[in-house]
Amino acid sequence: MKTLLLAVTLGFLFVATFSSIQAFAMDKIFSKSNWGDDFPPDGCDKRKALMNKYFEPDTNQAVLSAQQDPVFKSTVGIQNYSLDNGTVYAIKSSPKCNEDLPTFELRFILNNTETSHEILFVMFDPVTYQVLEIMPIVVDGRWQPPVEPKPISYPVKEWKELQMSGEFTGAKPPKPAQLFTIPYAVINGTLESITSNQEGSVEAVIKSESQGVFVLKIPRNYPYTDYNSTAAGPPPTSLDPIVLIKNRKTGEVAAYHTAKDCFYEVWVPFSGDTQIEVLFRISYLVQGWAFHGDDVPKYCLSQTLADFSDNILLSPLKQLKSGIKADNVTCKEELQLIIKGEDGSPACVKPDTATKLELRGWAVIPTAANEYKPPEISSYTNQTIQTTQIIPSCVSKIPHQYAIAGGPGIPLCPIMNFQASGKILHATGFYGIYNYTEYPGTSNFVLEPGHKGTITYLVSMDTVHNLGGLSEYSHEINITNDVVFMHDAEMHNHPGIELLVEPKSEMMQSNSSALVTITFLASKDALHGNYWITLPPGVCAGGEMIILTVTDCEK
Predict the structure, then answer these.
(1) Which of the 8 DSSP states describes residue 497?
(2) Angle 341-444-552 from CA coordinates, rounded to 5°
(3) Any residues with CB less than 8 A from the CB of 458 and at least 6 apart, and which?
(4) Would you say 369 and 441 are in contact if contact means Cβ atoms under 8 Å apart?
(5) Strand, helix or coil at 339?
(6) Dihedrals phi, psi of 99, to nearest 5 degrees
(7) Which helix (H) or strand (E) holds 357?
(8) Same domain assignment for residues 277 and 400
(9) What pLDDT is stored for residue 419 in this prediction?
(10) Statement to judge: residues 204 and 335 lie in one domain
(11) What are 42-100's pLDDT values in tens digits?
C-alpha cells in the first residue's frame, strides 16, 4: 500500500515542506525565557487544554502581531517577505506552568535569490499571539511558493460507477468491510480502463487528443484514514489525496478537491493520452489507530454504500436541521426540491407544482451544480447558471475598456463568530454567463448597457460560535447583504451601474437559509469593463466572487 508518511511527535503533527537543506546556519535571535510570568490565574490551564488537541490559529492575527514585535521589525527591516503556507505546531517550556505547552510557528521567507533563501521561524503563543521565539535558517536554492489548485468548471453529463471494498483495519471491536460506490466521469477523453483496490487507490487509463478532466467522487464515509480524532493534527474531515500522472504531456498537475455532504470530489486535469492514479487511503503509521471515514447524514448512505437497503429519507426540514444546506436537500425520486421565497427553507413538491410556484415568484428551483447547458444568447428570461468555453469576441476584446478586474487579491479576514456560505441559484437578464479565462472556475456575468440582470442567491448559515468564551451570547447573527465592486488596484467605483438588493439584511441562526435578490442595472451610457463582485455574506464569510462584464455585444 502506498502511504503518506507523516511524523507524529508529542501529540502534534509536523509536516516537512521542503525536501532537502543543502547548507544552513541556525541561531536563535530571540527567545522569551520567562514565558508565563504574565499569565492570568487560568493562563496555564488554557494552554494545557490545547495539548493533544487540534487548534487552527488565525494566520492574519499572527502576522499582525509579528509586524508589531520590535525584534521582528529590527530583523526584517524594510525587506519584502513572503509567507510560506501551513502552520508548524511546536512546544515550549514555561517555567511558570512548570511544563511544556503547545505553540505554533509561521515561516517567513526573506532574501529569496536564485542561489539561496532565508526562512524565519516565528513562534507564537496560541492564546495571546505574542511572539515567543525567532529563529533564522539559510537554505540553498530559490524558494518557490506552493501552487494553489483552482476549481475546475466543466459539464458532467453522465456519472459512471465502480465498486470498492472499504476495510476498517484496526477497528475495536472489529467492523466488517463494506462495499462502497465510487462515481467517476471523464470529460473530453475516452476511458480505456479503470481499476481500484481495497488499499484506497483508483487508476484510470485515458485516451485523448485534447485537454480534459478526470473526476472522482470518494464517499466521505469510506475508511480513508487511521488518524485518531482525539489526538493533535488536522481535523478528521480533511481528505488530501495524492495524484500521480504517468505518460503525460500535462506537466505539473494541481488537482482540485472539495468536500460535499456525501462525497469528496477530486478533479484532475490532463492533456493527451494519460494514466492517472488517485490514492486516498492515507496512513499515519501509528500502531493501534483504526481506519475510519467521516460521519455523513443518513440520506448519504444510499448514495455511498453499494449494499445499502434502508430507503428511509429524512424530511427536508429535518435534513436542514441536521446541518445539510437547503440547496443540498435530497427529495424522493418523484419529487422536486424548491427553496421557498418567504424564508429560504427547502421543500419537496411535485414537478408541476414546483414550476407553478417558480413562475409566480413564490419559490426557486435550484440548478444542480453539474447540469450545465449552453447559454441561450437570444433569451433574457429564465437564464440558469451556465458556463461555456465559446466566448464571444465582444467579451474577450472590450473596446474603450474603463475597468480592468485584475487579480482578486488576498483578503485580510478578521476572526468571525459564524460560518456561512452563499450560492447562486438562478440568473436572468444577462447576455450570457461564461467561464472567466483569467481565473478558470470563476463565472463571468455579461451585461449589456441599457439592460438589467438579476441573480437569485441563497445565503446559508452553518454555525454561530461563542466567540471568546462569553457566558452569554446571541444565537442570531445580523447578516448585511453587501455587494462589493472591485477593479484596477482595488478601486470600487462603477459609473453607470446601479445595484438593488432585497432584502438588505436578515437575522440568521445556525442551520438556516435566506433568499437574496441582487439586480445589476446598467444605464445606456454605462462604461465598459470587468469588475470583481463579492456577494453576501462577504468573501471572508463564505460569499461567492464573480466577474461582472459590461460590454455591448449586439452592435
Answers:
(1) E
(2) 105
(3) 325, 326, 327, 339, 344, 364, 366, 422, 423, 424, 425, 513, 514, 515, 516
(4) no
(5) strand
(6) -170, 170
(7) helix 351-359
(8) no
(9) 75
(10) no
(11) 999 888 888 766 667 888 899 999 999 999 998 888 778 888 766 677 788 888 888 88
User: To 10 degrees, the CA torsion angle through 350, 354, 355, 360?
Assistant: 140
SS (H, E, C) 268-314: EEEECCEEEEEECCECCCCCCCCCECCCCCHHHHHHHECCCCCCCCC
- Helix, strand or coil, per DSSP, at residue 548: strand
Domain stop point among 346, 364, 382: 364
**Type of residue found at 494:** H
Do residue 537 and residue 410 come from a single domain? yes
Decide: 443 and 426 in contact? Cβ < 8 Å: no
Residues of the chain with pLDDT under 50: 1-26, 231-237, 248-252, 286-287, 311, 368-382, 384-388, 468-473
Greatest alpha-carbon span in the chain: 77
- Give residue-wise pLDDT tens across range 117-157: 888 889 999 999 999 999 888 887 788 776 555 555 566 77
Do 167 and 208 share a domain, yes or no?
yes
Say if 151 falls within a structural domain.
Answer: no
Question: Tell me, what's the pLDDT at 150?
Answer: 57
Q: Are residues 291 and 349 in the same domain?
A: no
Number of domains observed in the structure of the chain: 4
Indicate whether 481 belongs to any domain.
yes
Neighbour tally for 367: CB within 10 Å? 19
Confidence at residue 466, expressed as pLDDT on a 0 to 100 scale: 55
In this structure, are 282 and 177 located in the same domain? yes
CA distance 441 to 411: 19
Enter the pTM of the model.
0.41
Q: Which domain holds residue 70?
A: 18-140
Asked whether the beta carbons of 141 and 117 are under 8 A apart, the reply is yes
